[in-house]
């Protein structure tokens, strides 16, 4: 074979597979460029990824054999892709309106009036309080006068005892000076009653409250429309109905006296 024929048979340029490989690399580069152009960059997370990559592929360090390896993956475990969201700052602001201030002034006025009323009642009924005939308590919106059954009524009866009528006579002058609601409520123990006059504890508690109100009306109470009667029977005990002493505490009359704000 001549030298001229040998040159004609030699292949010129890059091999055929190189063109296909170049096309593939170009397509991959375009694909990743498009992905980058469509993505949203989060600077903070980019720095986290860059830091993770730096630690993963950075300069090799000497690690002591007794030290536990720090990395388990290329990307940090706390990294999570997503659109960054701004952190909301909670602001607490208190506003006091004129209505709120007026309500506070009214509540303060009511408390002062209740304290004055309780002191006045205690002064009028000091003897009865000292003898444990009754007790005077103050709640949020009323002064409560609690009278035991044995000092107000005979057992199983709604007829006022003479000693208790004198207490009501003293109390009437104080009640006339108030301007709030007056609630007279009757309470019994859990022992059932079944007589011709009082077929149940409900009837007995209502009759006892009515007897108190009736006596106040007889001694010319100024404004009877302010008085309200309630019967609770044994539904609101002040002590468990398990002993005679506790049942005696539950048999009572309560007179609640309210005041209006100034």
What labels describe this entry?
262 residues, alpha+beta, 60s Ribosomal Protein L30, Chain: A, 5-stranded mixed β-sheet, 8 helices, 5 strands, 45% helix, 12% strand, rod-shaped
Question: Strands across the major sheet, in which order?
Answer: 1-2-5-3-4
**Helical segment tally?**
8
N- and C-termini, Cα separation: 131 Å
Q: Can you identify the CATH superfamily of the domain at 104-258?
A: OmpA-like domain
General shape: rod-shaped
The CATH topology assignment of the domain at 104-258 is: 60s Ribosomal Protein L30, Chain: A
Total beta strand runs: 5
Integer-rounded radius of gyration: 46 Å
Class from helix and strand fractions: alpha+beta
Give a written overview of the molecule:
This protein has a domain at 104-258: OmpA-like domain (60s Ribosomal Protein L30, Chain: A). A five-stranded mixed β-sheet has the order 1-2-5-3-4. It has helices spanning 3-9, 16-38, 43-57, 98-124, 126-130, 162-176, 201-218, 244-250, and strands spanning 134-138, 142-148, 182-187, 227-233, 252-258. The mean pLDDT is 78. The chain is rod-shaped and about 140 Å long. The termini are far apart. It is built from eight helices and five strands, in the order H-H-H-H-H-E-E-H-E-H-E-H-E.
